[in-house]
Amino acid sequence: MQNYTISGGSEAALSGVLNTSMMEHRRNGKIRIKSHSRSNIAIRILICGLIAVTVLAFVTFDYKDIDFAEAITATLHNIKTVFIQPRLERDTVTGVLYQLLVTFCLGIISTLFGAVLAFFCSLLCAKNIAFPVMANVIKSVVAIVRAVPTVLWVLIFAVSAGLGSVAAVIGLTFHSFAYLTKMYAEAIEEIDDGTIEALRANGADFWQIVFQAILPASLSSMVAWTFMRFEINFTNAVAMGAAAGAGGIGFNLFMAGSFYFDLHEMGFLTYVVVIAVIILETFSTKFKDKVK
Amino acid sequence: MSSKQMSVFRKRKITYIAAFAIILALYLFSSLITEFHISEGVRAFPDAVMWMAEKLIPDAKAFERFPKILEKLFETTLLSVAVTVIAAVCAFFFSLLGSKTTRLNGIINRLVRMIASFFRNVPDVVWAMLLMFSFGQNILTGFFALFFTTFGLLTRAFIETIDEVSSSSIEALNASGADFMQIVFQAIIPSSVTGLITWVLYMIETNIRSSTLIGILTATGIGYLFDMYYKRLEFGSASLVVLSIVVLVILIEMLSNMLRKVIQ
User: For a FRET experiment, which of A24, A160, A166, A221 has its CA 20 to 30 Å from that of A112?
Assistant: First the structure.
């Protein structure tokens, strides 16, 4: 920015024009081009804070005297083995695809259970149709359930149900339920109050309001959230297979990576998962467009 | 009621019934494949809850270990923030190349989107196991495992945010002859910064939960602490780990909700 250096009477005239407008000047006469609103300051403080925490993190991390160059070279070599030379050695393609189907089905079951439970729960905690006290209590409980990582739910249930599909489904359901309840409740809260009021004035009972007003109005966003959750649950089911022995392709990945140390097989399994997720993503985007 | 109105309700009813039938079929098929029986699940559930109420209560030994848990929790928080910030910086530059609004180059555009999709979809467990071979039981294993997925996710989210908010202001600057850097600093950043920060805050929350999982696989951080107590059957200490994660996640959620309100 350049300073205004205008001589003579025109300066006074110009400054008069400028001063009456919305512009602010800095002390040296430059025009202020950035707004100093509360939100801009907050953003600046937040960014500085995040950078400070990041620096603190790198300073305090315990690196255990790792040879960085060596580790990076080894990593690059392993990445090359996994992604350039995938090879299946211990299993057949059909076997792998079947395990993929198992993971897929784990995702379906937990999403379905989560969705059904979340639907009824969201009716109890959407602000526009539920009692305020009950809504707040349920929302807090759901927030706590959501705060526990999925893997911990699976491991906790595995103690009494044993490692396997039961623990995996219950664990995955817990987190899906909590997530979807929040999303469904938000979708219901967006409904125009007039529709519900009109039905109420006509003497409709609770279930009539649910099925004739709430469901038709919020179905498309509910379906979109459910699909998004299904994508997350599929990825989570892979992770649970690896970290909590829940079966499916995640378990194969775990065996290849941590038991046989077979990077080629790990690469093959990874590609299967990646392709499956990309197909799922494409399908779900198309489906969402259609529903909208 | 006229017949036309009736047909609307009938149609709706038929749609509901058809949807229900499809969902039921999907469920039956899935339970057959995964060998999950709902009776088993229903039976296991009360037992599990009883067990949780009985065993998952922090004992005296757990409180002795509390400083250690807090230390690991602190480390995990720092890790999640650091990963998200570094990934966000990389993702921002990447998303400028991938955004349609900057009109850099069609091929680069598509390439960036493909790379982001790849990083997003390779499961973090694969990165974790892969890095375990070279970095071992190190915090950097978790760092890079989280970094790759966060980078992929944020690149996609940033591209969408930038495409959504800044097309008209970019057009205006383009028309008045601004160069690329001017467009970035005067149009893209001011119009999309709130959206970008919302995504960063969301990813910090997600990464705290994910780092528990990565920790279990790579024997680092808070995940390792839980796994160790869990495998030693010291459920009192394990439950204290769970409780402290819950408190941390809820605190961060509240903090980021507050920040979101201020910056909007």
Answer: A160
